[in-house]
Amino acid sequence: MTAVPTLDPDRRAFPRRRVLKRGKIVFNSSKSVIDCMIRDLSQGGARLACSQTANLPETFSLVSVSERELREVRIAWRQIGEVGVQFVSEPRKALRLLV
Q1: Total number of domains in the chain
Q2: Are 5 and 30 a contacting pair, CB within 8 Å?
Q3: Comparison of pLDDT for 38 and 95, the residue scoring more
């Protein structure tokens, strides 16, 4: 009898690490800002926890408050209370944190 290979349930292109960092979701020409928590990070993306996932646009800016960095991101998946994003730009310094 031959063993059937199992698929890895975590099909990410890059390994992720758990973090707990404050973030800000910025869109609508910086007129809309939503607080979030960055829960997982990898080289290619992040998992965010926030209360308003249904109304987020497909692309937006993500600010990591502690690093004072901003990245452009694209939504990879969404569910109630969480959203997975793919980084589409290199990090750059956030000139202001948009309180």
Answers
A1: 1
A2: no
A3: 38
